[in-house]
Every structure is written in structure tokens, then in C-alpha cells.
Design a protein that fits this description.
Layout lengths: L1 E4 L5 H19 L5 E7 L7 H7 L10 H13 L3 E11 L2 E10 L2 E8 L8 H8 L10 H16 L6 E8 L5 E9 L5 E2 L3 E5 L4 H8 L14 H17 L6 E10 L4 E9 L3 E7 L5 H7 L2 H4 L4 H17 L6 E6 L6 E9 L5 E8 L6 H5 L18 H16 L7 E8 L7 E9 L5 E8 L23 H17 L6 E8 L5 E9 L5 E8 L6 H7 L10 H13 L3 E8 L8 E10 L3 E14 L14 E17 L4 E10 L2 E10 L8 E12 L6 E14 L4 E15 L15 E13 L10 E11 L9 E13 L5 E10 L52 E14 L3 E13 L21 E10 L6 E8 L4 E4 L4 H10 L6 E4 L3 E7 L4
Parallel strand pairs: 2-4, 5-7, 8-11, 9-11, 12-14, 15-17, 18-20, 21-23
Antiparallel strand pairs: 1-3, 3-4, 6-7, 10-11, 13-14, 16-17, 19-20, 22-23, 24-25, 24-41, 25-26, 26-27, 27-28, 28-29, 29-30, 30-31, 31-32, 32-33, 33-34, 34-35, 35-36, 36-37, 37-38, 38-41, 39-40
Helix pairs in contact: 1-3, 4-5, 6-7
């Protein structure tokens, strides 16, 4: 009997002893005897029987050879599935029986934290601190070290009396060990009065204030966290930097806790160092710019490399500002009386203008294709002096060279010639980029050798280096990624790729040879899921679309991880292959989950500042055309995710402003009928809206909507809606238009399609954006009014140059009615709340918000219409630097009574004629932010409408309507000037 026990520290030595023992013992007793049978103890092994049979050279009815025994032991250990093997050879008559006793290895499964700990640290940070990785071999000795790491993290966050213990449970499934750390954090300590030592140079009060460890208004000291300790030390350093002590060192020597008071006293060692004054001589440089360019400020050290880097940065800064001949040197003085001065001597020279850029020698690429890759740029409205520097020249030469080399021009050379005083004008500079393309090398033949198990030929059409294509290292690297990913997707994680080349029939022909080594194919033995609490396993299993027998594909595994994250219900999805270093062909894939918090609450505050056309007091009939106003807005949202454990979401959203009071409850059920591209929403809405100045509308609505992701850029929304709308706060007499001011119930079905091919939805430079809405309201659905609603929108974005964009948008809508009831005016059947309204910063900037279209003949308040047409054109161009752009725009269009009244007429024929096209021109600026551009537009309406207003109160309007004696109307008009301030482009 031969026995060996393997542990990581001495596995190699144990295996060597085993093999030597086998050589001595078995060569004397059993060498050459026939094997009668091979048994495993226990019979259930962690490696499948078919794989065991394949890897073991020992076979029944064959002669026992010591070499086969050695190979069998090596292969069993190589699987990584065993920590202990005991091999016995027993006589069975003239034959020999082999018994292999084994003990399994174990692997890390779920690592969790039990016990309540006030954040920070959170459970995820505590788990990460253990450094126990999912799927890796489990070594009991590592648990004690993991406990210490968790304890250290707790101590660094003020939990000095934390107690950490652990327990682990062996799972009979997949040889996993689930580990739980029980944490009793105790009470978090607070900062005490710091002890300062060393050469401080500042008062202790100033230093302590810089730490922000003490609360304001005498409320004691802050609780200790790792972040507060770090930020406090950084605050001290920043305070010394204000006094030009750039070399100050701040070190936390200790943080001693008093367990009786739970107060920890920081001891901070400070060496203030000399004052270091860095200044520019010969040219004015703002301190902020000096700090940004001289890395001494960031590194808090003074050495020649950092000073030289600062010199080069300042030189490039001045060159980019037009001082192309700028020279920068630095003088570093010695420390005298605790002071050191570093002077950057700047000789800017004359300011130049970069006026012309010429590219010569390019035949293969058009000039525009090269220009769009360059930083050099002649003077323009955006860059008043042009963009030019030595660094830009080097960068552009490298970029152009790489472009040519990636397309087969291996010998391409790019040089730049600068011409001063161009065309005889002092200070003007031109640059000529000389390109020597050389010969283009092409692939004449591609040979792929090595594939045996996979058919690689169908990939040829997707490769970059096929015969006739340019030869480049870049194309070969692209092919390598394509081929290796193909093998990875089919379970060949060990596949390797190499290539060779030789000269073909001509010196510019290249014959390529791709050498592939496929390696061993690995498959999925099973998928293990852990960490689920509220989420139902079937929801997770639907997203993991591979199982036993499928190729072990990192691509499929990552795609499943992405789908799981897309559910929006997991804070972390940890994924691993169990026993990744083992040679076994069948492997478990392990997913461990941390569910996200189910409840979240968010609040927001905003405002609108513009010529506002919304409602005012119910008794006031003034300003029917709107007026300059400020509308604050607050919002409160609450969300419950993973409702019922199925990934469903319930959300409550509310908004309150002077124009809108809204509350909405939404129920989202993703993946309708287990279809990835379909979601369903159930919504209940209450909305009290004052955004149309003529009336207030209270909307009570219920709807169900199915969302379909048809393509990446195309989404469909299919919706059924039932709502009741009450009209109040009228600015028109209900006696004049009774059929359109009554409350109304609407039942409708609609389909809405959105196609978005913009490069950037918040600030598009190219692409298109289309929407199409088709709705049908009918008595069949319980509607009191029957009509069809069609609204289409098309926006396109055309780059004229790299920075200048021509954007345009056209909107068209029509809303015909049918089955008109007897008590309704056939010429005007659509209820007031259901009409089209337009005007404002996002539709037609000739009007304030919702002020376009027909108006009440008595009061002048807008009534909306049954047709609309808007067209906007914008020229977007750089204005100041890369963050501020300018816009020149032209808007035209209007809201019309009905489709037959739509007209492109420029002039209004009378005070009651609103069926003509209103034009506006204007300009605006955009300031780029991470959430979209801040927008300020100023529009001039060329032909705003005139209309009749009413000079009295609402009661007087009703009375005069009864008596039919309303007096003389007042002539009013929409202001020529409109301004709008918001976030995001107009379209």
C-alpha cells in the first residue's frame, strides 16, 4: 500500500516521496502482473467517470507498470480535485487489484458577513477584506488570516473592540465551502484632541481645524472612519500648501483608543519644511495655471524631473496660446532661512497666429480624413490664435504615421515644416505636413494551420488580413482577437495564436501564416448559484443560458453577468470558474449574489426661468400671452425593487411646482412572458396641470403599456389609456365654447415608435432621431370623444466640419375627430385638454410655453388646435474653447385649427387669424456639463400674432357674455423677444 497526502505547501515533495515509494515497493511485488480491476474509495468521485477513464493509463486486463502508476497519480493531482490520495495494490490470485482511496479538495463558495455593523465599512467591503475569492481552493489556514484582515478594517473605522469569528459549512454540492464571518463591532470610537509633534510652524488650533475632525458649534468630535482619517491628514497638508510649504510631511504615528471612553487620540507627526515659492518671471501666469502645470504641487516633492516636466508643460501652454517661440527655463535656489524659491523664467516672444495648414504627399487618404485626426488647427472663431505647439506637432505626426502603418504603409514617414511670417505678415505661421507614403504592403496569401476540433474556415470572411487586403501589425492583432475569442466562446480557454510572415511573389506581397494551438476543450459541469434571499432562483436561471455540457465560454459567462446586472436588483454579481487552475475538463461555474437594497428614496429641486405661458390666478385675465416668470420645482420619488422576488419594480414619483402637481404609481414587470425584448408597465396617474394659461386640468389616469426593444436603435411602445380630465380656472367664458371646456373621459389605444441613431443623446453631432405616435380614442374603449391622433417627428444632425453641426427638426401632427356627438360643434369637436399645444424652448421658440395657435376671440387666451407643424434649424459651432458652443437658429411653424387650415402664410390677416406660420430667429450658447449642456437661448419672433384681449375680470367676462355687451377689446400681441434657460439641447 502506498499513501500520499497533499497540501499546497508540500504537495510537490509529497508527490515525489510517493513516486519513489511506488518505485521500490511495487517493482518488487506487482510489476508486470495483470490488473484484475480498479476501484475508487469512495465510489463517488469529484471527477466524472468518463473523464477518469480517459486520464488514467491504468486499465483492467493490462499489465501493471510503474510508469503508468506515476502518470495516473500526476494526472489525478493535476485536476485540482484531490487533496489526499491513497493507492493500494492487493493480490487477486495471480493478478492484482488496484484500490485508489481519495479525499476531495474544497473550494471557496459564498463568503458572507453576519452581524450588524454601522457603515462604513459595509458588508461588501468586509467581504473584500477577507481576500477569499470565489471558486479558489479552500485552505483552512487562510481563515485566521481573513479574520485578522476583517478586524483591521473595522479598527481602521473606529471599531477598536470588534470581535470577529468565523464558521464554515461544507456543501455536498460541487465541493464548496460557504464561509460566514460573525462580526460584533461594538461601539465606534470618536476622535480625541490630536497630539501634534515635530516642526509644526502653525498654531495647533489652525492645524486641528484643518482636519475637520471636530464638529461645528461645539458638538464634540466626529466618529472615526478610515475616510475621515485620510481626509483629515490631507486637510493638514492642504493647509500647509496655502502657506507655500509644499514639502510638508504629515504622518499619523498612532491612533490610541481609550476603551472606557471610546475616544481615540491621534498622534500626528508634522515636519513643515521650508516655504517653497514657485513663481513665473517674464510673463504673467495665474497661480491656478501654475499649479496645474507644475507637478511639484501634486507630488509634494522638489526634484529635477518634476521641475523639468513643469518647464515643458508651461512651454506647451504658451505655445498653445499663440506664443510659438516661447522659451521656459527654471532656476532652483538653495534653502536659506527656511525658504526656497523656484523661478520659471518665461520668454514668450512675439505672439503668432497659426493661419494655414497644408498637407502634401497624401495619395491614399483624402486630406479630410487626415485633418480630422489632427490637433493642429488654423485660427478660427473657436481658436483665435490657432492651435499649435511642438507637442501637437509630435502627436499629429505619430497619429498620421499610425494611420498609414495600419493600412499597409510600413515605411511611411511624416514630417512637419513650419513657415514663419507667412505671406509676408509678421507673426503669421503656416505649417506644411509632408507625407512620404512609400509602398503599400498587401497580403497575398493567408494560411491557417493547427485547427483540428473547430472549423475555423468560416471565420475567414471576418478576418482583416485576407488576400488583397493591406498588411499591418494592427490587422494581425485584430485577427488574433477575433480567432481567440472564437475559441474562448467554444470552451478552449487555453487556445494560443502566433503568426509568421514571408515575402511573396513581389517585395510588397506578404504571405501570412497563422499558427493555432487549440488546447483542451472545457465544458460546464454545472452552474452553482448562491446568495439569493428575496430573489426567486427561476428569475436568475432564465438569465444564465448555459448549463451542463455546454462549452465553458467566458464570453457567455460575462453576457449572463451583464443580463443579471441589467435586472437592476443586484448590488453585486460575482462570477467565477471553480478550480480554475485544475486540468479537469468539466468545471462548475459559480455565481454569487449580493441583492441591492429594495427601497430607495430620492428628492430633487429645480426651477424654470423664461417667458412662461402657464396659468395664473383664476380671476385674472391679464397677460394672455404669458410673461417672464420663475417656477421652482421639487420632486420626491420612492422605489421598491424586486417585488415578489421576480424582478418587478413598484415606483412612486411626484412633482410639485407652480405649473404642475403630479403623483404617479408605476408597476414594471420586465421580460413579459420570458421574452427579453418585452416589458409591461401598469401606471396610475394624478396630475393637476397649469401649463396652459387658459385653464387648469386635473387628470386621473390609468394605463397599461408594453415596451418592445425591436432593434438596438428602435423601440416600440403599445399603450391602452383610460383617463378622466376635469377643467377648471377658465380664462374664457364657458358660455362661448361649452363643448370644449367640459370635463371629459377618454379611452384610447396608441402605438409609439422611437428610432434613435444619435451619437450622443444629450448633445448629438451626427445621426438621426425619429418618433411616430399613433393614437385612437373611441367609444369602444369608453371614450366620450372619438378622434385619431398622429404625431411624427424627425430630427437629423449633419457634421459640416469636425466641430460645426447643422441640426434640424420637423414635427407634424394631426388630430381628426369622427362620430361627432349632436351637442358638439362639428367644426371644433376636440375637448380642450386633448388638443395640441406648442411653443416654448423645446418646440417653437417664437412663443412662450404653450402659447402657439388659435386663441379665444374675447380674451386672447390660447385654445390649442387639431394640427401642428414645427420646423427648426440650428447651426451649432465652437465658441470658447471646448466647453462653450454657440448656436444660431431659425424656428417656424404654428398650431392650427385643423389640417385644412394649415398654411405657410407669413402674415396674419386679422386679430382672429392664427392659421399662419410664425417665424423666429435667434442665438444661444451652450455650456457642456456631465449631464448635458446648459442652454440659454434668445429668440426674436419676426411676425408674432396680434389678438384681442379683455380688460376686466372673469366675472365681468361671464356677465358681458350673457348680455352680449363685452365693450371694446384691448389689442395685444405676443412679445417679439423670448428667452429660455434649461438643460439639454432644444432637440
Amino acid at each position: 500500500m502506498v499513501r500520499v497526502r497533499s497540501q499546497p505547501a508540500y504537495r510537490t515533495l509529497a508527490l515525489l516521496i510517493l513516486l519513489l515509494s511506488c518505485c521500490v515497493a511495487w517493482s518488487q511485488q506487482f510489476e508486470g502482473r495483470q490488473i484484475s480491476e480498479i476501484q475508487f474509495d469512495p465510489a463517488a468521485q469529484p471527477v466524472e467517470s468518463t473523464e477518469l477513464s480517459a486520464i488514467l493509463p491504468l486499465k483492467p486486463k493490462t499489465a501493471l507498470r510503474m510508469a503508468d502508476v506515476r502518470t495516473a497519480i500526476e494526472r489525478l493531482y493535476a485536476t485540482g480535485r484531490y487533496e489526499y490520495i491513497e493507492v493500494q495494490a492487493e493480490p487477486a490470485g495471480p493478478d492484482v487489484r488496484i484500490v485508489i482511496a481519495t479525499r476531495n479538495s474544497w473550494f471557496i463558495g459564498r463568503v458572507s458577513i453576519s452581524g450588524k455593523v454601522g457603515e462604513p465599512p459595509n458588508d461588501g467591503q468586509l467581504v473584500n477584506a477577507t481576500e477569499l475569492d470565489l471558486g479558489q481552493p479552500f485552505i483552512p489556514g487562510d481563515i485566521r488570516a481573513a479574520e485578522d484582515k476583517v478586524r483591521r478594517l473595522l479598527v481602521s473605522n473606529g471599531y477598536y473592540q470588534a470581535v470577529v469569528t468565523s464558521s464554515y459549512k461544507y456543501s455536498p454540492i460541487a465541493q464548496q465551502v460557504n464561509i460566514t464571518f460573525l462580526v460584533d463591532s461594538g461601539r465606534r470610537s470618536h476622535f480625541g484632541v490630536p497630539k501634534l509633534s515635530g516642526d509644526i510652524q502653525l498654531s495647533e488650533t489652525v492645524v486641528i481645524k484643518a482636519t475637520k475632525w471636530k464638529r461645528w458649534f461645539g458638538r464634540g468630535w466626529q466618529p472615526i472612519t478610515e475616510a475621515r482619517v485620510r481626509d483629515g491628514l490631507d486637510g493638514i497638508r492642504a493647509r500647509f500648501e496655502k502657506g507655500d510649504r509644499l514639502l510638508a510631511t504629515v504622518q499619523l504615528k498612532s491612533l490610541t483608543n481609550d476603551p472606557s471612553t471610546h475616544i481615540a487620540t491621534p498622534e500626528v507627526q508634522i515636519e513643515a519644511g521650508p516655504t517653497v515659492t514657485i513663481k513665473a518671471v517674464g510673463a504673467k501666469v495665474k497661480r491656478k495655471k501654475l499649479q496645474d502645470n507644475v507637478p511639484v504641487f501634486q507630488e509634494r516633492a522638489v526634484d529635477q524631473d518634476l521641475l523639468e516636466e513643469g518647464r515643458q508643460n508651461l512651454k506647451e501652454e504658451f505655445q498653445a496660446a499663440g506664443y510659438f517661440d516661447a522659451q521656459v527655463e527654471f532656476n532652483e535656489q538653495k534653502v536659506v532661512n527656511g525658504k526656497q524659491e523656484i523661478d520659471y523664467v518665461i520668454t514668450p516672444g512675439a505672439r503668432h497666429r497659426f493661419v494655414k495648414l497644408t498637407i502634401q504627399g497624401n495619395k491614399y487618404f483624402q486630406t479630410e480624413a487626415i485633418r480630422e485626426r489632427m490637433f493642429l488647427s488654423p485660427r478660427s472663431f473657436q481658436f483665435r490664435q490657432g492651435r499649435y505647439s511642438e507637442a501637437f506637432i509630435r502627436r499629429d505626426q505619430e497619429s498620421i504615421t499610425n494611420l498609414y502603418k495600419s493600412n499597409g504603409f510600413r515605411d511611411a514617414v511624416v514630417k512637419t515644416e513650419s513657415i514663419e511670417d507667412y505671406s509676408g505678415k509678421a507673426g503669421d505661421v503656416a505649417a506644411i505636413v509632408h507625407i512620404t507614403e512609400g509602398q503599400q504592403y498587401k497580403v497575398s496569401k493567408l494560411t491557417i494551420d493547427g485547427p483540428q476540433k473547430l472549423n475555423i474556415e468560416k471565420l475567414r470572411s471576418t478576418l482583416s488580413s485576407t488576400p488583397g487586403q493591406p498588411f499591418s501589425e494592427y490587422s494581425v492583432a485584430t485577427d488574433r482577437e477575433t480567432i481567440v475569442n472564437y475559441y474562448y466562446a467554444h470552451g478552449y480557454a487555453g487556445a494560443t495564436f502566433e503568426y509568421g510572415s514571408k515575402v511573396g511573389a513581389t517585395p510588397t506581397d506578404v504571405e501570412l501564416i497563422y499558427h493555432l494551438v487549440e488546447g483542451k476543450r472545457q465544458v460546464v459541469r454545472g452552474v452553482i448559484v448562491s446568495g439569493l434571499a428575496g430573489v426567486k432562483p427561476k428569475l436568475v436561471n432564465k438569465q444564465i443560458r448555459f448549463g451542463p455540457g455546454d462549452p465553458l465560454s467566458p464570453i457567455q459567462m460575462a453576457e449572463a453577468q451583464r443580463r443579471l446586472y441589467d435586472l437592476g436588483i443586484f448590488a453585486k454579481v460575482d462570477m467565477a470558474v471553480q478550480n480554475p487552475d485544475g486540468d479537469d475538463e468539466e468545471k462548475y461555474v459559480v455565481y454569487d449574489f449580493e441583492e441591492a437594497r429594495r427601497y430607495s428614496i430620492t428628492t430633487g429641486v429645480g426651477a424654470q426661468l423664461a417667458n412662461i405661458g402657464g396659468s395664473n390666478a383664476a380671476t385674472s385675465l391679464s397677460d394672455p400671452a404669458g410673461s417672464t416668470g420663475f417656477s421652482p420645482r421639487v420632486s420626491l420619488d420612492a422605489t421598491r425593487i424586486d417585488f415578489l422576488g421576480l424582478g418587478h419594480t413598484i415606483s412612486f414619483r411626484s412633482r410639485y411646482s407652480s405649473f404642475d402637481r403630479r403623483a404617479l404609481i408605476d408597476y414594471l414587470a420586465p421580460h413579459l412572458f420570458d421574452l427579453d425584448h418585452f416589458d409591461v408597465n401598469f401606471t396610475v396617474l394624478y396630475d393637476d396641470s397649469h401649463d396652459v394659461r387658459t385653464f387648469s386640468a386635473t387628470r386621473e389616469e390609468a394605463s397599461v403599456q408594453i415596451t418592445q426593444r425591436i432593434q438596438k436603435s428602435l423601440t416600440g411602445f403599445y399603450k391602452f389609456t383610460y383617463r378622466n380630465v376635469d377643467v377648471s380656472d377658465l380664462k374664457i367664458s364657458p358660455l362661448l365654447l361649452p363643448h370644449i371646456v367640459q370635463s371629459v373621459r377618454i379611452g384610447s389605444v396608441s402605438a409609439n415608435f422611437i428610432q434613435d441613431r444619435r451619437d450622443d443623446p444629450t448633445d448629438a453631432h451626427k445621426g438621426m432621431y425619429n418618433t411616430l405616435e399613433l393614437g385612437y380614442a373611441s367609444h369602444i374603449f369608453g371614450s366620450q370623444s372619438d378622434f385619431i391622433r398622429l404625431l411624427a417627428r424627425n430630427a437629423t444632425y449633419h457634421p459640416i466640419t469636425k466641430k460645426i453641426v447643422l441640426a434640424r427638426e420637423t414635427s407634424f401632427g394631426v388630430q381628426p375627430a369622427f362620430r361627432i356627438s349632436p351637442n358638439t360643434d362639428p367644426s371644433d369637436p376636440i375637448p380642450l385638454p386633448e388638443r395640441f399645444y406648442g411653443g416654448g424652448g423645446n418646440s417653437l421658440r417664437a412663443f412662450p410655453e404653450n402659447q402657439a395657435g388659435p386663441r379665444d376671440p374675447a380674451t386672447g387666451f390660447p385654445l390649442g388646435g387639431s394640427a401642428l407643424f414645427f420646423n427648426s434649424v440650428e447651426l451649432r459651432f465652437p465658441f470658447i474653447g471646448d466647453t462653450i458652443t454657440g448656436v444660431i437658429f431659425h424656428d417656424m411653424g404654428n398650431v392650427f385649427d385643423k389640417l385644412s387650415d394649415m398654411s405657410l402664410r407669413f402674415h396674419q390677416t386679422s386679430q382672429t387669424d392664427f392659421n399662419y406660420t410664425v417665424h423666429a430667429i435667434g442665438t444661444g450658447i451652450r455650456y457642456r456639463t456631465p449631464i448635458g449642456p446648459l442652454r440659454l437661448d434668445l429668440a426674436y419672433s419676426i411676425n408674432p400674432p396680434r389678438f384681442n384681449g379683455f380688460g376686466g375680470t372673469y366675472e365681468q367676462l361671464v356677465q358681458c357674455s350673457v348680455n352680449n355687451t363685452c365693450g371694446t377689446p384691448t389689442l395685444q400681441h405676443v412679445s417679439h423677444f423670448q428667452f429660455f434657460f434649461s438643460i439639454g439641447q432644444a432637440f
